[in-house]
Design a protein that fits this description.
Subcellular location: Cytoplasm
Keywords: ATP-binding, Coenzyme A biosynthesis, Cytoplasm, Magnesium, Nucleotide-binding, Nucleotidyltransferase, Transferase
Oligomer: single chain
CATH class: Alpha Beta
Radius of gyration: 15 Å
Number of domains: 1
Number of strands: 5
Cofactor: Mg(2+)
Pathway: Cofactor biosynthesis; coenzyme A biosynthesis; CoA from (R)-pantothenate: step 4/5
Largest sheet: 5 strands, parallel
Catalytic activity: (R)-4'-phosphopantetheine + ATP + H(+) = 3'-dephospho-CoA + diphosphate
Order of helices and strands: EHEHEHEHEHH
Length: 156
């Protein structure tokens, strides 16, 4: 059993995230879902809401915990947790290109490795931005998000 970190802003979390995190838990055994917050960035959901949605979504999944990642380098956070590596999902070549650069830098900074899980094809076009955009025009995204997210989207 290895501890890994699945970082992200999760604004909001969607079923593509759930798939990657669930698969990571099956492969590695123990996952920290690290919710990042950048005070310079505008989020749809507050840090508290994103933490609550992720906690509700993964509350019953063995080996998965949810934490707020402090405003530090991701590689430093992963290392401070004693994690074996970080796990990132990739949907397409653009994701891969960006994430490969980040993986190289994180390895350079302090030796933290990155493992990539490819997206399930049914989620390959899904993103938090798309969820937010569709919802802002009254579209139904219930098949793409966990119930904890759907409840909060309906309340908006």
């Amino acid at each position: 059993m290895q501890l890994v970190v699945c970082p992200g802003s999760y604004d909001p979390i969607h079923n593509g995230h759930v798939d990657i995190i669930t698969r990571a838990a099956k492969i590695y055994g123990s996952v920290i879902v690290a919710i990042a917050h950048n005070s310079a960035k505008k989020y749809t959901f507050s840090l508290e809401e994103r933490l609550a949605m992720a906690s509700e979504t993964f509350g019953q999944l063995d080996g998965v915990s949810v934490e707020v990642m402090p405003n530090v380098l991701l590689a430093d956070f992963v290392k401070s947790k004693g994690a074996a590596l970080m796990v990132k999902g990739v949907r397409n070549p653009l994701d891969w290109q960006y994430e490969a650069q980040m993986a190289t830098m994180n390895r350079h900074l302090n030796g933290v490795e990155t493992s990539f899980l490819t997206s399930d094809p049914k989620y390959s076009q899904l993103s938090s931005t798309l969820i937010r955009d569709v919802t802002s025009y009254g579209g139904d995204v219930s098949t793409f998000v966990p119930r904890a997210v759907q409840k909060r989207l309906e309340a908006r």
